[in-house]
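Data availability (excerpt). The following record was deposited with the supplementary files.
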Amino acid sequence: MRAALLSLIETVPNGTALRGALPLANGQLAMLQVDLARQAGAGEILCLVSSVGERVRQIEAYAASCGIDFHLVRSVADISVRLASDDELLIIADGLYVAPADIPMMARETGTFVTSFAPGEGARSLVERFERIDINHIWAGLACVRARDLVEARELPEDWSVQSALLRLAVQRGYRRHVVPFALAEAGRIAIVRDAGEADALAMQELAARSGAMGARLVRMAPVQTIARRAWAAPWVGPALRIAALALPVGAIGLAVADWSMAALGVLATGRLAGHAANRLFGRFSASMVRDSEQTARNLAFAIAFTLITVLTVAASDRLAGLFAALIIPALALVLGRLEGPLPRRWIRLAASPSLLATAAFIAIPFGAMLPVVMVWNLVLVGLMLWQTRTGTVAAEPPKPHI
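Predicted structure:
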């Protein structure tokens, strides 16, 4: 069995706040470490503490919500009595931040190991944040040791850092080195967080990630960052957005049946916007994991509402064509998203975007062009699929035989 060792002992410079309990988006830094431990296969978390407060209890509750046992420990002796000799102990450095997208890469290592950087020269101020292993390597904040090796560390003085001592033990035992690119630290994808300002900067960096150049510039604007901070600080915003993302498409179905098609499309687009906001603000951070079933329910509610709007908007003689045209769009969009090819992913996302489709339909309704717009959208999806699957070479010369 594998257990994970977290630490909530180190405090911010000239302060009393625990580094591991610093706010990160709508959660805390240690909650992201719980996610790392869970993905690394840990069934139990041992948390080093010197005192227990509300922040520690919140992290304990989050671990319980993830289905992981959480136990408070104060020494190596407390740790070793909870482990069998053949167990593994995954050590996660106090204050370690790993970007959510990079957690699977860090968590996939099996057996005993020490994850490290080999930064070489330069970036001295950054290197000093991590613990040095030897002259050429620094610790990247993750290691896994055998539980039976903890016997050697039981007699440590009380003022020694337990995590540092276990790291030294792993190095002396010659555990396998897992060297990761130092560029991850330079880009802030892996970091040792020292204060609340750094945690906030990392949260904003993650919010801007995968948004494209325009989206990243938008997130860096002061008003957008202020809105994000206020949304993270208000506990009701996340649940409200997630409820709206499902409830508004369901409400749009009722509006469509009542023959208020334009209002239904407006509500439908607003529901998609709420879903995007929920995913962007909360879906990639700890303490708010959006399940696949929830996203599937949102998509299904949209598809049903949009199909009803299409069918009820067109003439009675065109309703079969409207039904077919509306139903085929999600299937084509799904297939297009699975195809590999030369098209930029941004084009594919735009072509398969329910939000854009609802907006286009909203504009088309006053002109009586709802069905033509849906049909053209299908043709665009088919055209992109053909372009994505085109072959570069129709025929090639047979390979020449070796002489």
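Summary of structural features: The longest helix spans residues 261-282.
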